[in-house]
User: What shape does this take?
Amino acid sequence: MARHVWFFLAFVAVAADMAAAAAAPSLTRVLLSAPTAAAPGGKCLDGTAAGYYIDGNNSDLFAIYLEGGGACYSKETCESRAKTSLGSSKGWPATHGGSGVYSGDASANPDFYNATRVYVPYCTGDVHGGQRKGPSPGTWNLWFDGHLNFLRIISDLKAKHGLGKATQVLLTGSSAGGIGTLGNADTLKDLLPNARVWAAPQAGWFYPGDCADEPTKPWSPPSYWQNWSNGKVGGPNLTLTAELWQSYIDPKCTAKEQPPQSCGSAHVYYKYIETPLLILEQMYDRNQLVSQLGMPDDGSNPKVLEFVRYYGEAMRNSTRQVYASSKPHDGIFLASCFDHGGIGVGSHITIDSVSVTALLGDWFFQRNKINHRVAETCEDTLPCNPTCDSIGPDQGGCLKTLESLCGKWSSKHQCLSCAQQHAGRLRDAGCTVQMVEKDCSQ
Assistant: This one.
C-alpha cells in the first residue's frame, strides 16, 4: 500500500510542478532515436521514445534537471504507470515550461537562467537507474533503462548542443530525480572530463542509516512502522528494485561494502561519490516516513511522534558524514521540515535566513560568501523550522483538512474539483485518492 501512495503523491507533485512552470519560457522537446547495439536505451516503460527538453545556447554553462515522480515495483504498479506521462512519451507536449533551476526567468532563477537548461522527463519508473536493454516476460514486457537513457541523452547533448565544450555543468533533480542525481553524478563527470561537473540532489537521500534499532547494521534503512511499532526491526529491501531494474550501482562501492546491495542506499553510497555534492534534504522526509515506511499520518498519536523522532535521529546521524566530509566542496542544507521535495531554486524554506536559491549559486560558482554546510538553528527532536510548509504529521486527518480548504460542498463533483485545486495541501495532510473520494462522498 505504501508504494501505491508514493506513486499518487509523486504524480500530484509532478502535476503541480508542471502547472507552475506553464507561464515561464518554454523548453523544446527532443525525442531519442531508436536504440542500437552500440547505443542501447532510449525508451520509456511502454517502449515509446524517451527524451529531453532544452532551451538556451550557452555552450559554457549547462544545468541538467532530472524529473522525479516515485517508482514502480510490481506488475500492477508498472503497467499502470506505463499508461501515464511517467511511463510513456505519447502525451508529452512539444514544449515544456521552465521553472526552478531550468527556468529562463532571471528573477526566479538568477544564477542559471542564462545556462543551456535541460529538463529530463522521468518515464522509466526506476529512479533513472535501470540498465535493461529491452523488455522481457520478467519485466512484464516493459522497459527499465533509466541509466541507459541518461547515457543516450548526454551523448545527444554532446553531439547536437555543444555539451562536450561546456566548462561548467550542474546536475540536479528532485525525489526520484534526486536519487538519479546521486547515482549518475560520477558517470556524468567521467563523460565530461574537460568540465567542472557538480551535483545537487534534492530529496534524494534514500535512505538514512545508523538507526537506533539496528546498531550492528549501520547500513540498514529505518524499520517499517509496522515492525518498529511492534518491537521488531526491518525496513525496505534494497535488492528488490535492483534486480527488477538491473540498476547501475557504482563498482567503487560494491567492491568494498558488505552486503553489496547496501550501496543502493545514499547513506552508504555517499562516501564513494567523487563529484562535489550539495545535499538538499528535509530532515523528516514525509515520503519516506508515510509512503515508504508506512507511518500513519496522525500527529495526535504519541507513538507516531516517537517514530518521527526515531527517523529524524537517523537522518541527522546519516548526514553527519556530509557535515564532517573531507571533500572540500561538499555542502548540505538539511531543513527541519516534515515534507518531501520543494527544496530547490525558488523554495521559500530558509535556515538562519539562508535560502536554497542563494546557497546553490554561491556553492556552484564558488563565491564562498555563505557557509555551504548549513546547520539547522532550531533545536528539537521534532520538525521545528518555521519556514516549512509542514512541520509535523496531520493532527486531524484528511477530512479535517479537506473541510478547512473546501468548506461545505453540495456534491461529490464539487468536492473533488476543490480537492484538485488544493492537491498539494491535501498531499501534505496524508490524503490519498481513495481517502479524498471517500470523504467527498460523505
